[in-house]
Amino acid sequence: MQEIDRGREPAETATSLLNPTSRILVYLLAALATPGLHFFMLAVLLLLAMLALSMQRRMPLRLIWRTRWLLLVLLFGYAYSVPGEPVWQTLGRFSPSWQGGWHGLEQAARLVVLLLWLDVLVLRLSAEVLLAGLYQLLHPFSRFGVDPRRAALRLGLTLRAIEGLERGRGNLRNLLQLDYEPELPQQIQLRLHAWRMLDIVVPGLICMGLMSHWLISA
To answer: For position 180, what pLDDT does the model report?
Structure first.
């Protein structure tokens, strides 16, 4: 039977400034704030994310390259759907507009910022640490019928099954085989990280900033 170890890790052994739950919460709040940010702030966040990834010796351009088709769809979708001054007058109504291209570029920049900060705050965590953060984040909703233990456990088994697949070609073919059964662990241990003052202050400040922005815009 699968179990979750609810042993709590002391705060002084934490390897980062924020615990995993606070990291996930900060990213979710930042994702809510990103659509309302000015283009200048997007550029600042983009530079900060690339700086953080470079300090972690990660390759931000690799993540952007993987989403290149989605970024191009956003760019050309807005360029051809938003009316405005045509880029090429000779094409007439078949030409993309400058206004649409600018809106598409802005939306693509928002997506890139979200993806890079997802890599900085969440994706760099190991599977066990990420699941522990999700478990702690969902635990308050247990009063409303949500079972965080089962949700974290099922997600953990799914991640372990995916990690067990052989990298390279043939993964999809293996998944489609009816008799294919990936090896699953019998137990998953999640260490819950202790909350510190910084883990509460940072999400609280972002939440207060969001509420202030919404009240001013209303």
So the answer is: 47
pLDDT at 66: 79
Residues contacting residue 32 through CB under 8 Å, at least 6 positions apart: 210
pTM, rounded to two decimals:
0.71
DSSP 167: S
Distance CA 50, CA 119 (A): 10
Q: What average pLDDT does the segment 164-176 reach?
A: 46
Give the amino acid at 79: A
Interatomic CA distance for residues 176 and 189, integer angstroms: 29
Q: What is the per-residue pLDDT across 75-88, written as a single tens digit (0 to 9) for each?
A: 999 999 998 888 88
Can you give the length of the chain in residues?
218
What is the arithmetic mean of pLDDT over 113-136? 83
Nearest to 67 by CA among 8, 128, 109, 15: 109
DSSP 8-state class, residue 59 = -
Q: In the Cβ-directed half-sphere of 151, how many Cα atoms lie within 13 Å? A: 15
Beta strands, E only, the chain: 8-9, 192-193
**C-beta of residue 103 within 8 angstroms of C-beta of residue 80:** no
